[in-house]
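Predicting structure from sequence has reshaped protein science. With that in mind, we have picked out one protein's residues alongside their backbone shape tokens:
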Amino acid sequence: MPLIPAGSLQLETERFGPADAPAILLIQGLGTPLTRWPLSLCERLVAEGFQVIRFDNRDIGLSTQLDSLGLPDLMGFFQGRRPPNPLYTLADMAADSIALLDALQIDKAHIVGASMGGMIAQLLAGLYPDRCRSLTSIMSSSGNPMLPPPTPAALQALFAPLPPGKDEASMVADWVRRQQVLMSPAYPTPEAELKAMFMAEYRRSFHPQGVARQLAALLTGGDRRSLLATIQAPTVVLHGEADPLIPVACGQDTAASIAGAELRTISGMGHDFPTALMPEFAAAILAAARRAA
């Protein structure tokens, strides 16, 4: 599909399945394009009678880049001087999803988010309850400040500086190293597949300034537990028991904060989208959707 006007932005969007079928909206995480939602997952959901929508968030992929906003002071945050100055918020990104649904003339959708996308999905379900049929929060967190942090290796994978040259070969090799820290130990993705994925992502769009702005929004997202307590949509929380970036306790806390939420954890799953686990991802999304039905 072409870029979809969504409020003041244009969001690169792909839509699968019949337009009159119940909609599932997939929201990706920090610096992650729509293509990271595997086609096999989209096809499974379409086969179950749904239409599936995946899109690039603002500032990533082929959607609107907000360079006119400048850059947040992440260095001050890393040096412990001050929190970063967010140039927009996760709530703004949730509003983007609502604007996209409006543009597609979809009144209500099953909302699915992964990692930072899970945080955005939680905000959508809490702030716009009339637009959310069900919620599936995947490898995400409630924002509770008392939850355990990432492992040191995962923190390094997230925050380490980019290679100086930022050329394709250097960036792909760097992304592969980072992803190998985060990926599922029981379901490892072969290095050749990682290289091919990151090469395609680099060639599609490489814009680290947008990732910096998204990161500032994530780091200042705050504690969502009081909002989660208001969510009435059927909810499934899916989390990997071996997640080094957002530990499984974060998923447990998310589920505990939403009345009636179902928690599903997967042994040996880290912070990624292993092909072998797409049936489990689909099952979690469908469980929430069927409860709504």
